[in-house]
């Protein structure tokens, strides 16, 4: 069965972006949460949040590499099993399904990213480092045109405590991002008096994992 993206074209009633000093994370409120299934996934999963990983310069940033190539930005769209609570899903093999999308450097802004990145000035000035996204948008705008070509493996979350609970799907086709948009992400505070940069985990050894295409 091919990948099924249910309600991925639905615009949420609200979106909230927050700087948690690890990344820029965005949640959304829906009447019915978007879901993914098929494409070799063992269960049906519903949307939880999306967040980004980037580097201090354009030579690094992504947490996955393709033929040793590292991209300047990687987006993770996180989903959890519809039949489990998030707490339980974190303890289960295949409890979470994360979509990874690469971004390559471009001369032009990515309009889909601009919706959430335009909130960064408000986030930087807010005591709680949180902002409402002025123009909420559908998750489908963050997907590549070609969702048939992807890499699949069983792995972990890339942030502590790195639960071994994730079915990873990393799409082969990159989207684009401008240097100005990357600089917006780099302007976020890291909570230690500096800027939030290099918030990616270095690519890890396979340790016996099988990656399928």
Brief sketch in words of this structure:
This protein is mostly beta strands and 213 residues long. Helix content is 12%, strand content 33%. Strand 4 (35-37) and strand 5 form a beta hairpin.
Alpha-beta classification: mainly beta
The total of beta strands comes to 13
N-end to C-end Cα span: 15 Å
CATH class: Alpha Beta
Low-confidence stretches: 206-210
Protein name: Carbonic anhydrase
Keywords: Lyase, Metal-binding, Zinc
Family: Belongs to the alpha-carbonic anhydrase family.
GO molecular function, one term: zinc ion binding
Layout: helices, strands, pairs:
Layout: E1 4-6, E2 14-19, E3 24-29, E4 35-37, E5 45-54, E6 65-66, E7 69-70, E8 73-81, H1 86-89, E9 96-106, H2 111-117, H3 120-125, E10 130-132, E11 150-155, E12 166-171, E13 175-178, H4 179-186
Parallel strand pairs: 9-12, 9-13
Antiparallel strand pairs: 1-4, 2-3, 2-10, 3-5, 4-5, 5-8, 6-7, 8-9, 11-12
Cofactor: Zn(2+)
Function: Reversible hydration of carbon dioxide.
Protein name: Carbonic anhydrase
């Amino acid at each position: 069965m091919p990948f099924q993206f249910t309600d991925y074209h639905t615009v949420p009633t609200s979106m909230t972006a927050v700087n948690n000093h690890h990344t820029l994370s965005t949640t959304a409120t829906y009447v019915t949460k978007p879901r993914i299934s098929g494409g070799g996934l063992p269960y049906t999963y519903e949307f939880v949040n999306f967040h980004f990983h980037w580097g201090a310069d354009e030579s690094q940033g992504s947490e996955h590499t393709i033929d040793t190539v590292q991209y300047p930005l990687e987006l993770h769209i996180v989903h959890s099993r519809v039949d489990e609570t998030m707490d339980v899903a974190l303890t289960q093999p295949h409890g979470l399904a994360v979509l990874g999308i690469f971004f390559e450097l471009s001369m032009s802004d990515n309009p889909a990213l601009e919706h959430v990145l335009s909130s960064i000035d408000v986030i930087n000035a807010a005591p709680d480092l949180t902002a409402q996204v002025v123009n909420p948008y559908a998750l489908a705008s963050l997907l590549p045109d070609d969702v048939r070509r992807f890499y699949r493996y069983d792995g972990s979350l890339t942030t502590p405590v790195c639960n071994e609970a994730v079915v990873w799907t990393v799409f082969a086709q990159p989207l684009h991002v401008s240097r100005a948009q990357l600089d917006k992400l780099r302007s976020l505070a890291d909570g230690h008096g500096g800027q939030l940069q290099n918030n990616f985990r270095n690519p890890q050894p396979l340790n016996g994992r099988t990656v399928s295409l």
